Amino acid sequence: MQKVKMIWNNPILKFLLGFMKIMVWVVVILVVLVIAIQRLFNNQVSLGSYRMFTVVTGSMLPEYQIYDVIIVKEQNPSIIEKGDDVAYLGKKDDYNGKIITHRVINKRYENGKYYFTTQGIANNAADPEIEESQLYGTVVYKPYILTWFSHVLNNSYGLYFLIIVPIAFLIFLEILDYINHKESELENEEEK
User: Fold this and answer.
1) 44-142 maps to which CATH number?
2) DSSP-assigned beta bridge partners for residue 70
3) How high is the pLDDT of residue 1?
């Protein structure tokens, strides 16, 4: 026990364990925050003019894989061009109520409004035409770290390794801190 206590009192080891604890907490909090924002607010929350979506189908392969995370920026419809990838809220047929991310293949202006025709890269047919009011914006970025977390969390072991194991590790470190603190208190009382 004395040997363990000497190792635990090593200032370098204490610093490294404290740093690891902070980093694990940061990762766990960020992962939970990203999941909460997407799931609880049903993608209706924008930060500034940006929204975050997770790709759930293979319609945009090979550009976007299933479970890729994409960042969409609100844009003035007048600057959206053919070839841009846009996210929109579907209102017709099978698309009704779904958030779709597809590529613009046609754009027209009529009666003061822009209309867009989109299609998934891997799809053979175009989507029903959409109005500018349905647009969330254009895809501007695919954050690789969030995409990695999304892919890990969406496999059978991901939640276990990304959430449960780090929390168990943090609990273990807290128990060690508590034991070390109690032993120090006992030694201080014995010295008196």
Assistant:
1) 2.10.109.10
2) 53
3) 47
